[in-house]
Amino acid sequence: MPVRKLVMKAFRLLWIAFVALIVVDLSVGLPYPGWWNSLPLILAYVLVAVLNRRDRPAAPEPVEVGPPVTGRWSALNSPADRTPSHGTHAYGQTYAIDIVAEPEPGARPGFRALWPLARRNSDFPGFGAPVLAVADATVVRATDRHRDHLSRTSLPALLYLFLIEGLARTIGGTGRIVGNHVVLDLGNGTYALYAHLRHGSLTVTEGDRVHAAQQLAQCGNSGNSSEPHLHFQLMDAPDPETAHGLPFRWSEIGVPRNREVFDVPRPASAFHPE
User: Fold this and answer.
1) Backbone phi, then psi, for 96, in 5-degree steps?
2) Domain boundaries, the chain
3) Angstrom distances, CA of residue 107 to CA of 51, 103, 197, 252
4) GO MF annotations for this entry (predicted)?
């Protein structure tokens, strides 16, 4: 088993140990100061930090691929502003990007401090938007078993996401984090991951050969997601737990910066399933 995968398994086990110690301490008490309970958690993040520092290859030249969507979108957590873009190299996320649909100003509901606590996915213009293959490729992973949950766009909902739901998903493993997803083999050791896809929307299965601009699924809100959006990244392996992230650029767009709004015209060669 690859070292990176072993470390991620150890990371989850240490999280479980942390939660177990907290539960036992609150239930019956433990014979040492409470702050000792945080040692497994500290060790978990030290372990991942050391791995990422020692096992991080030099960044190659960006791989140019087509955009994974059409229409007007804006970028969040962009590698154009910082790397790792999501604050961690884990799960091949070094150069990952999140994009949300912005068809017109005000079409996408904004953050609210208290109310509404959550919104329906249909309130967001990105929910159900087509997600496209960025190149001719082979489908090597296709998962469509996770539900689309309500948004996490209020302060209480975000606290729930980070303190409770995020913890449960971390312990549950990669699948619980990325939700419904597709991984494409683009060739030359490059793989594209599309995460947080809409339940029931996948139009491909593992082993399928797809063409550039072919619809793969729809944008959704599954996995560790605060609102309907697409998480996209390139990797050097098909398994996010063992992969390193690879830099990308989208043809004629580049890499949008955080909150940059960009337009992607519908490609003339777009292929859609019947």
Assistant:
1) -70, 160
2) 3-54, 63-264
3) 42, 7, 20, 25
4) metalloendopeptidase activity
Asked if 197 and 144 touch (Cβ cutoff 8 Å), the reply is: yes
CB 77 within 8 A of CB 114: no
Token pair 């961690």 is found at: 88
Which residue is associated with the tokens 């209020």?
A: 154
Q: Retrieve residue 14's tokens.
A: 């240490």
Low-confidence ranges of the chain (pLDDT < 50): 270-274
The pTM score is 0.88
- Which CATH number is associated with domain 63-264? 2.70.70.10
Q: What span, in angstroms and rounded, lies between the C-alpha atoms of 186 and 204?
A: 15
Contact yes or no for 131/216 (Cβ under 8 A): yes
C-alpha dist (Å) from residue 206 to 46, 75, 189, 196, 216: 36, 29, 18, 17, 11
